[in-house]
Specification:
By secondary structure, the protein is mainly α. Helices cover 81% and strands 0% of the residues.
Length: 94
């Protein structure tokens, strides 16, 4: 999902005559970001609920949602890699 968005914006920039390169995150960086977002989000949600501060609870929910999206994007990337690998074996006669 993230790579597709980056490719989309790069193609729009190219049509406008601009040259940009949006960096792609590695799987390791996505996992670290997901863990960090989840922990901080859970902390913000807990503090928001216990202190009855709704904005803090909302920030916590958004942090946990960001972590979930990163995990889903990484899982989708693994599935795509598995499909490429399995197709490669079939074409190679294995």
């Amino acid at each position: 999902m993230i790579n597709e968005s980056a490719e989309y914006f790069e193609s729009i920039a190219k049509q406008l005559g601009l040259t940009i390169r949006i960096p792609r995150s590695s799987r390791r960086m996505k996992k670290i970001s997901a863990l960090t977002n989840g922990v901080v989000g859970m902390g913000c949600l807990t503090v928001g609920v216990l202190s009855r501060k709704m904005p803090m609870a909302i920030v916590g929910i958004l942090g946990m949602a960001g972590a979930a999206l990163l995990i889903l994007d990484d899982a989708g990337q693994e599935e795509q890699d598995d499909e490429k690998y399995s197709h490669g074996l079939r074409k190679g006669g294995g």
